[in-house]
Amino acid sequence: MVVPSRDQCLELLRQHDMPLHIRSHSLMVTEVALFISTRLNRNSCRLDLRLVEASALLHDIGKKPGLETGENHAQLGARMLEGIVSAPVARIVADHIYMDASQTAGPLTESLIVNYADKRVKHDRVVSIRERFEDLIERYAKSPTQAGMLRGKLDLYIALESTIFSHLSIAPHDPEIMGITILISEKVT
Questions:
Q1: Residue 36: which CATH number?
Q2: Closest alpha carbon to 26 in 118, 116, 94
Q3: Domain enclosing residue 24, as ranges
Q4: Is residue 189 part of a domain?
């Protein structure tokens, strides 16, 4: 099974009736992930850009049904994609909300880049890691324990960000990355 094209991924999102706001988020995550991956590849990384693109586009395919059922949307999304897309895409979808301390130093993989890009996009705009985690805490932490757990994750993503940008000639908050946008036409198609 091959990695699906951008058009095939967008068609899967339509088939699964992904709401516009989640589709917009996924498109922006894709642009951020491709922006970073392309630049990393210029600096001796060997990231598969088709895998990054497909995984980023599909990373939240389980979000709507997960919100309805209470299931983990990453695991649900991966199950929804089994047999439809290549196994590496489904694995990245499953892993896009998980990371442990051992991964923060690299090696940089397609999975880590999609995961990081997701943490840089609040709704459909690029923000800092801190702003994104403040939003996640506000929206999803139902207890002080959950808020503390998310704050601990923030530290991991700050470490990953440091690793990623140590390979790049730009900083995480440079206008080049903060100014990434998506075409309105892609949001609605």
A1: 1.10.3210
A2: 118
A3: 6-178
A4: no
pTM reported for the whole predicted model:
0.93
Tell me, yes or no, whether 186 lies in a domain: no
Mean pLDDT in residue range 1-21: 94
Helix (H) or strand (E) holding 130: helix 129-140
Does pLDDT of 67 surpass 90?
A: no
Name the one residue in this structure whose structure tokens are 């996640």.
Answer: 136
Q: Is residue 187 part of a domain?
A: no
Q: Is residue 88 part of a domain?
A: yes
- What the block records as the tokens of 53 is 């693109």
DSSP string, 22-74: HHHHHHHHHHHHHHHHHHHHHTT----HHHHHHHHHHTTTTHHHHHHH---HH
- Please answer whether residues 37 and 52 qualify as being in contact, where contact means their C-beta atoms are separated by less than 8 angstroms: yes
